[in-house]
Amino acid sequence: MKISIGFNRHLEPDWLAQTASWVANGIEEQALKDRIDSMLESVFTSKVAKDKTRNLLFGIWNKLPKHIPGRFQSRGANLLMEYSEQHLVFHWGMMLAKYPFFSFVVAQIGKLTKLNDTFIYSQLEDRVTEQYGDTSTIKRSMQFVVRTLMNLEVLKNPKQGVYELNKAMSIVQPEIKGWLIEAIMLSNQSSSRSLSSINDDSVWFPFTLYFDASDVQSNRELEAHLQSSDTIVFL
To answer: Which CATH number among 1.10.10.2200, 3.40.50.620, 3.40.50.300, 1.10.1660.10 corresponds to the domain 101-165?
Structure first.
């Protein structure tokens, strides 16, 4: 069975922010694609590269896979407009929810940097190719993810082959954290998950945050039930 990767270009924060802003203002489908095309026109000389970048931006902020409800997407865009200084968190949530390859790569970075804020690129490549296959397409897609993380100032590259985490962003607003809980559950396509496992997930490495039951209650799409010593979140 063919594995869908989808993350086939690097992205810039300004492109992501502008695309999200258009979605928040009700610009969707072909009208959104046309605006993205115009935004990228002066950036690319290659039509193929421009089209792939447009499709990825559209995929993150407008295209709805079967498991993603439109409410999740619209809330993400609206929250970004309200908390624009924390734009990274909303792009992150959308990419987690919609692109399993992105989610897998950043989870591996989180695991590699759990005890140390640096990782060696070859270690990441070994983990990704073991899961997805040792092909040039997979390796290029991984490079696009890592470069996007650098553009978003999540990572820095102090020397060849070595990457280091930038300072983590603190997230405290319950409505943002509730939306992120929904994002990770959509990413896993899970209908229930323990709150402790959500807190322990390695995809959160760019942020300083802790999820509790009140964050679940801030999101109407989620329910929390206490079972034994843990809280189970239902989507």
So the answer is: 1.10.10.2200
Cα–Cα distance, 30 to 210 (Å, whole number): 38
Q: Identity (one letter) of the amino acid at 45?
A: T
CB 52 within 8 A of CB 8: yes
Give dist(CA 62, CA 60) in Å, integer.
6
C-alpha to C-alpha distance for 81 and 229, rounded to whole angstroms: 37
pTM of this prediction exceeds 0.85: yes
Domain extent listing, the chain: 13-86, 101-165, 173-234
pLDDT 10s digits, 110-134? 999 999 999 999 999 999 999 999 9
Nearest to 184 by CA among 209, 148, 156, 159: 209
Angle at 16 between CA 14 and CA 19, to 5 degrees: 105
The residue whose two tokens read 């206490």 is 226
Q: Which residues contact 45 (CB under 8 A, 6 or more apart)?
A: none
Beta carbons of 9 and 144 less than 8 angstroms apart: yes
> Across-strand partners of 155?
165
